[in-house]
Amino acid sequence: MLITPSLHHLSPASGALSARTGRYEKRLSDLAGLYADDTAFSTVLAGGDPVVYAVEEVRPSSRAGDIAFGTTWMQPGRIGAEYFMTRGHIHAIADRPETYRGETGHGLMVMEDSDGRVELLEITPGATVYVPGFWIHRSVNIGAGPLVMTWAYPADSGQDYGIIARSNGMAVRIMADADGWRAVPNPAYRPRSPAEIAAIHATGE
Fold first, then answer.
1. Does the residue 2 lie in any domain?
2. CB 129 within 8 Å of CB 100
3. What pTM value is reported for the model?
4. Is residue 15 part of a domain?
C-alpha cells in the first residue's frame, strides 16, 4: 500500500505537532510507584494532579521499514529531590533504536543496558541523542522550564514499559543537588537474571 506524503509543523515551546495521528498525556497519578519518596509523591498529588508530560506522534503505519516520529513535552518539577521523568521503556523488538533531539529546555536521557550498565547524556536545544537497540531509556527534565524533544524510531518497534518495574526501577535515580543534578544508585534495584537478559536479546531480529 502506497502511503501519501505528509507535512508537519512543530511548536518548539509547546511540543504541539500539526497533523498528528495520536496524542496522550501522563498525569502525576499515572506515575505512582516511579519515585523513591512515596510521602513526597502523596503530598504533591494532594495539591492536584498535573500533567507531567504529553506525547504527540505521527504514525503513518506500523509496518517494518516505516518510521514513527513525534514530540515529548515535559513540565519541570520534582518529587522530593527527584526530578520529573517519563515512565521509560525498552522497545518490544529490542534491537530497534531511537533518536531524541532537544528543542526547548534541559533534559537528561537515562539509559541502561540489560546488564545494568548506565549511560547518561544531556539534552539541550539542537542536541541529538542516539539510543541504540537493546537499551532501556527514560527522559528526565533537569531544567527550570519545560523540556520539549522530537523523537523517531522504527514504526514496528513497540514498547515494553514493564521492564523497569520488574527490576524495581532503573539502576540510578536523578536527584537535584547544589550543582544541578546527580545520579544516585537505586538501592531497590534488582539485577536481571541470565534468563531475563537472554529473553530481551531474543526479541531482536
1. no
2. yes
3. 0.95
4. no
